[in-house]
Design brief:
Length: 202
């Protein structure tokens, strides 16, 4: 996998995490009002942790998004930072669930909202991947059509040289063989370009 595609995958993953934590925060904010005393304090502390983690994930996402096309080895560092911050989100979420344990309907609503946000984020990622695949195939098809046309033109030129050289002497035959070598070189370069185009996109 290329550094660029790895960076784009990390950007998509960070976006999914942002969507997920936004859904959690929204539901936790709604549910916190129904809690009393120590449960409310624990829920508020969990909410503060969630907001801090959300801000950190947003910063990582912004940096990734602004530099995804030029990033090289930094992608792994950003992934590690996202994973570490996501552990914090999960801990804060579990702390809230523990504080709201006597509010079964509230907990259920939060889990459903989180699952809905995850599904929507995954669908958006899949749609983006579909669009990228269509673009990649169209570009590869265009490059292949151009390469085939160049090969066809070279074959026509070579065929004309063969026709001219049927009754020709050794010098003409040497020119035809040279033309064949040139056509083969064009063919080999074209195939190499096609392979390179596909490998860059995969």
């Amino acid at each position: 996998m290329s550094d660029q595609s790895s960076a784009h995958e990390t950007v998509a993953w960070a976006k999914q995490r942002l969507d997920d934590v936004d859904a959690i925060i929204s539901e936790v904010e709604k549910a916190s009002g129904a809690l009393k005393d120590s449960a409310r304090r624990e829920a508020d502390a969990a909410l503060a942790r969630l907001r801090t983690s959300r801000d950190t994930i947003q910063k990582i996402y912004d940096v990734l998004r602004s530099g995804a096309a030029t990033m090289k080895g930094d992608v792994e560092d950003f992934q590690a930072a996202l994973e570490a911050e996501w552990v914090e989100v999960e801990f804060a979420f579990q702390a809230f669930l523990a504080a709201a344990s006597d509010q079964a309907e509230t907990v259920r609503g939060i889990v459903v909202a989180r699952a809905t946000a995850q599904r929507q984020s995954w669908e958006e990622s899949l749609e983006e991947l579909r669009d990228q695949a269509v673009d990649m195939v169209e570009k590869a098809r265009s490059e292949l059509d151009g390469a085939i046309k160049r090969l066809s033109d070279e074959a026509d030129t070579f065929q004309a040289r063969i026709g001219d050289a049927k009754d020709a002497r050794d010098e003409s035959w040497a020119a035809v063989k040279s033309g064949l070598a040139d056509a083969k070189a064009v063919h080999d370069r074209t195939i190499a370009k096609i392979k390179d185009a596909f490998s860059k996109r995969l």
